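the two lines:
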Amino acid sequence: MNEEELRDELLSRYFNEPVQAPPRLVEQTLQKITASERLTKSLVTAVVLHVIVLILLGVCLLTGPVPLPGKLALLLVFGLSQTSAAAVLLFCLPGRKGTAAGS
Amino acid sequence: MITDKQLVEGSRSGHGEMLGLLVDRYKDDLYRFCRHLTLNAQDAEDLFQEVWVRVIRKLEKYDCERTFKAWLFQVTLNLHRDRYRRWKKLQIRFLNEGSYRADVLEIRDSAPLTEEAMLRNERNAELEQGLRSLSKKYLAPLILYYYNEFSYEEIAEMLGIPVGTVKSRLNQGKRLLQTAMRHVKEEEQ
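prediction for all of em together
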C-alpha cells in the first residue's frame, strides 16, 4: 500500500468513526428552538407596541399647545432613541453567541 | 416509518413532536459533522443547536425534492462560515494570535484503552493537528468527500462552487494536509 492509499484510508477511517451526540443535546436544542421562537415573537410584539406608542405620542404632541419646532424636536428625539435601542437589541441578540464561539 | 418529507411537513405545521423526531433522526450525523468542522466538542454543540434554530427559520424555503440531509449540511456549512468569519474578525480586533484555545479533539469511545486504541488516538491527534492548520475552504470538501455519502455534484451544490473547484480543492487539501502532518511529526520528534 503506498503513502497516498494509507493517507486515504486514515482519513476515511477518521471521518467515518461513529460519534454519538451527547444525550441531552436534542432536549437542549428543542428548548433553544422554543426560546428563540418566543424571543422572536416578543421582539415583534415590542416593535409593534413601540410603533403604536410613537404614533399616539406624535398625535398628542402635534395637537397640543407646544410650538411646532419643539414638538418636532421632541418627536425626533423620542423616535431616535427608540430606533437605536431596537437596533442595538436586534444586532446584539443573534450575534451574542456566534461572536464568542471560536471554530 | 415516517419519511423526512412527512417530518418536515409536520414541523412546518408546528407539530413539536415531528420536529423532535427530525432532530433526533439526524442528531448523530449532524453532531459528527459539527465536530469535524469545529474540531472542538463545545463549539460543535453550540453549532448543532444554532443550526436547528436556523433550520426552523428557513424550513419554509426547503425544497422537498432535495435530500434533507444534504440541505441540513448546507445550512450547517453556511452557519459555520458565518460564525468563523465573526470569530475571525473578533480575534483580529481583540485577541493575540497566541491565545487561541488549542482544545484537542478526541473522539472518545467507551472501549478500554488498548495499545491499538492508543495508537489510533495518537494518529487521530496528529491528523487533527493537521486539519487545524488547514484553510477552512479545504476542510469542508474533505469532510464531505470522506463521508462517502455525497457525490461531487452534491458537494458542489452544498458549497456553492463548481464541481471542478471541488475536485481541485480536494486534491490541494490532501496535499496540504500531508505537508501539515509531516510538520507535526517532525515537531514531535
